[in-house]
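Weekly sync, protein design subgroup
Attendees: M.S., D.O., the rotation student, P.L. (late)

Item 1: inverse folding check
M.S. brought a backbone from last month's batch and wanted to see whether the design step gives back something sensible before we order anything. D.O. pointed out we never logged the input encoding, so this time it goes straight into the notes. C-alpha cells as presented (127 positions):
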C-alpha cells in the first residue's frame, strides 16, 4: 500500500464511520451547489449514498449534470466523482445501511431501502 492509498483509505474510513455527510454537486459553471446532509454507507473500500426521494430529487439531479462534487464528513473534505452504482451492489449497500443505522427506527432506515432509493444509489469516487 502506498502512502497516497493509505491516506485515502484512512480518509474514506473516517467518512464511512460518520452518520451523515454533506454533499455538494458542481454546476455547469463549476461552482458548488448548496450542501445537502445525507447518510453514507461503506461497502468494502467504496462509499455509497442514496436519494430517499429517488432520481428526481434536486440534489440527485445536480449530481447528474457534471458527475462531480465535494463531500465533507468526519473532518475530511474531498472532491469526488458521482458514479451510478451497479445494481448488483444493492443488497450489500442495503445491508450496510441496516447495520450502520440500526439504532434508528426501522421506519426511518426503510427510507433508504425502497426501490426508489435503490435506483438512486451513487458510488463516491475520490478525485
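Designed sequence read out in the meeting:
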Amino acid at each position: 500500500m502506498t502512502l497516497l492509498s493509505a491516506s485515502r483509505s484512512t480518509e474514506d474510513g473516517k467518512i464511512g464511520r460518520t452518520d451523515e455527510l454533506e454533499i455538494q454537486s458542481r454546476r455547469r459553471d463549476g461552482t458548488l451547489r448548496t450542501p445537502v446532509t445525507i447518510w453514507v454507507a461503506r461497502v468494502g473500500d467504496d462509499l455509497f449514498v442514496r436519494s430517499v426521494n429517488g432520481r428526481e430529487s434536486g440534489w440527485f439531479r445536480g449530481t447528474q449534470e457534471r458527475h462531480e462534487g465535494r463531500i465533507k464528513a468526519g473532518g475530511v473534505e474531498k472532491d469526488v466523482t458521482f458514479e451510478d452504482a451497479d445494481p448488483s451492489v444493492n443488497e450489500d449497500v442495503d445491508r450496510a445501511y441496516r447495520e450502520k443505522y440500526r439504532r434508528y427506527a426501522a421506519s426511518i432506515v426503510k427510507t433508504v431501502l425502497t426501490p426508489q432509493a435503490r435506483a438512486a444509489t451513487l458510488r463516491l469516487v475520490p478525485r
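Discussion: Strands lie at 20-25, 36-39, 41-43, 46-50, 68-73, 76-84, 121-126. The chain has one domain: 3-126.
Action: P.L. to compare against the previous round before Friday.
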